[in-house]
Amino acid sequence: MSKQQAEVPYGTLDLLILKTLEAMGPLHGYAIARRIEQVSGDSLQLSQGSVHPALIRLEQEGWIRTDWGISETNRKVKFYSLTKAGKKQVRVEVENWEKATALVARFLEPL
Amino acid sequence: MMSVRRALERLLALVRRRRLDRELENEILAHLELAERDAMARGLSPEEARRAARLRFGGIERMKEEHRDERSFRRIETLLRDLRYGLASLGRTPGFTAVVVSVLALGIGANVAMFSVVDAVLLKPLPFPQPDLIVRVWEAPQPGAVNATSAPDFVDWKRLANNVFDALSAEQSVSMALTDKDGATRLSGKAVTADYFRVFSAKAQLGRTFTPEEDQPGAAPLIVLSHAAWQSDFGGDPDILNRRPILDGVPHQVIGVLPPGAFDRDETRFWKPLVFTPDQQVRDLRWLTLYGRLRAGVTAARAGEHMQAINAALMAAHSIEDRNGTIVVAPLAPLLVGADLQRSIYVAFGAVALVLLIACANTVNLLLAKAASRGRELAVRAALGASRGCLIAQLLTESVVLCLLGGGAGVALAGLLIRAARPMLAESLPFTADVNLDLRVLAFAGVVALGVALLAGTFPALRATFSGVAESLNRSVRGSSGAHARLRRAIIIGEVALSLVLVCGALLLFRSLLKLQQLDTGIRVEKVLTMSVDLPAGAYPTPQKAALFYREAAQRLQAAPGVSEVGFSTVLPLRWISNGEGMFVPGIPEMVHVRFKRVDPGYFDALGIPVLAGRGIAGQDREGTPRVAVINQALAARLEQVARIKNPVGKAVRVSTPGYREMMEFIPEVEIVGVIRSERVSGPGDPDPPVVYVPLAQVPSPGVKLVIRTGAEMAAVMPAIREAVREIDPNLPLGDVATMEQVRDGTLSGASRPAGLIGTFAAIAVLLAAIGLYGVLSHTVTLQRREIGIRMALGAGATDVFSQVLRNALSMVTAGLVLGLLGTFALTRVMKNLLFEVSPLDPVALSIACVAIALIGLLAGFLPARRAATLDPVETLREEG
Fold first, then answer.
1. pTM value?
2. pLDDT in tens, B302-327
3. Which single residue of A49, B107, B412, B615 could bond B356 by disulfide (Cβ 3.0 to 4.6 Å)?
4. What is the rounded distance in angstroms from the CA atom of residue B833 to the CA atom of residue B836?
5. How far apart are the CA of A102 and the nearest CA of chain B, in angstroms?
6. In this predicted complex, what is the ipTM?
7. C-alpha distances in angstroms, B427 versus B75, B436, B672?
């Protein structure tokens, strides 16, 4: 682990998970964690376990749905997928994110 | 902000906790398996793969906590866990749990039962709409006196004061004979003017109540029934409104039945219109009870002022001069309760509050003992990372669980107590009081249980978690800690003091009760039956008819098997004689106020009242013979005082005398023929009033009481008595059947009623204090086993150890007694009003209480002391070494 690793920016784990599910379709918890690591090019310091608390929150909000499926190791696991409300939420979160980064970007421009 | 949906989901998660935990566990396992598989695919060994997978996953336990935080409300989950843990911990020590729960059940149960009485009598509004507007009205001759009202005054007031009263009604108690095919029954009722039910805002459940013209002369005979009367006397007949029951020989139409409720707790079974006859229109005859409903917004005080003005105008108009009373308009509720009952209730409530305090103290003690013996368990938990707040929360939860269990058992106990006491309550409480375990009482029980939990639980919880971990772990071999023991001693001393206060109070009340029972009633009460007879106007229109009935009834009853003596009187002994009359003695200007009683020749003999001078009433004293009277000692003394008459026998006086049915009085000349020893007319404390007795045969009354001396039990003689009366008049019911002892107890027990109640509470308190003392001493011995062992090993004898433990007990009891005596002295003022001829500092009662408590204290100390003395030093030292 010699590379410089970044922590997950505060409040963005939800967005990363939602975006992952939008792109990949139904996935189980491990696959979601792996996918986030791969996309970030292993530059993200993410404890894989922390996707689970985030998943229960998103499920309770009604943005994702769970279905039982069978994992590659032949175990019964939960597969998560976006709901209609979840798809809407992706757009909201993306918009929020863009607004926030645009705002910060303005402060970073040379005066 | 949390969305509504999420909040609901999180609440739902509380109940699905177990399933969600299992699913999470499963997810984690699956996650790690997949990670391991990937790692092995990258060429790692199974060992390395497992390690790598765990490393990448992060802290499993921390993640689980986070997961629980996210999915649900953490605090509630913790509380549920503590509750579960608390229940399990209580279940592990069933003996301890049973003792604490029963101690609390006694304390809380007694308080809940007592509160239900306080609530029904003193706190709840009267069970009528807008009860604050209901008042009673009278003219008080002197401040503080309650008085009846005359018919003309009532009619005038009602006419002139309708701007302050919505309704004003007069009431008089009556009784009527209900006759049907099975015989005759005596029903108590009220004659009321038409506005009566408007005053109480009572609507009929069936039919209607009275209309304004129905209390005018010439109105048809009507009655309204109470719900209870409809159910019991008329079998709940749905066709009741078409029935014409025969009352006093006259068919009456039932126009309405009231809904069930407060009126059913009164003895009134029916109401009939009160129609004033011409002879009742006399301003000097006060015989009506007035109830009014104020207009909204009018206060009782303003109504009083207004009535005062009306009365002044009336007095001027009727040129009345000798009346200088004030009109009182008083709210009904306090009048119904009365000062005596209120005081009794407060004292009894104070006593149960003490019982609760003692129960609380016991619970603290038991919890402290438990905390001490599980100091190790708590220390281990603290060492494993439980915070102090966590431990306190858990201990508090445990005491809350205990108190809720105790509260539940207490409510059940209170239900039993109320049910058992219901007959006594019905007798001594106003009819408006509905004593029940309703929501208010349950809320009270909940508050008390939680209050006790906080009071009894906080201290032991703080105490138990106060000492450091290392100290606790090390301490177990050292015996009891000093501060702990001091606290528990202080609690025991307080308990002993409180129970002494209760026991003293109970003993004082019992002594007062004994004094009351020894009170000289002036009559023979054993084997005397009493009952009342009311002659209906239809069958007995003239005084001659009534006199004939009394003579014949006396003869027949005398001959009935089991009857030895028979007497008639208008008023029973020990029952206050309400009609005051005047005696006019030649030579003195003012009249002598006397009480007036009509008796037959058998009365004095039946009650064993001796004639002191002259003769009693005789058979020859009847209509047509010279009018005579017998006076009591009190009147003889009064005559000597005001008229210097040394020997009243043979003196001629004039006595104002009521008529047979008409209200008009006449003032005949009578000769005093005898003096009798005073019989008691009123309750304890009041001196005997002057009484004049005139022959029932010369001045008959339509209503009389029968006094019958019997040779056998009441139940054995009653059928013969009923048969004898039925032979003369089959339509005449006998009412109010009671033994003379019951009559006496009814009059005297008003002051003594709390004695039994407080006695019970005192017994409970002493029991609790003894349990507490025993518990503390026995626990001390357990904690000091090692110390005792060492002392014995060093040569202390069994008697030394025994006496040391007992001395310890005795020192606590003595301190408690001193404190308790101080408390008793402080409460003398409260007790004084409840005691009859007993000082609140009665030395006999106080010393018996002290000795009793000291003995019980020694007994509680005896068993632990003996256990300490029989300890085997070798075993004790080995066991904890």
1. 0.73
2. 999 999 888 888 887 776 665 667 88
3. B107
4. 8
5. 24
6. 0.86
7. 51, 16, 40
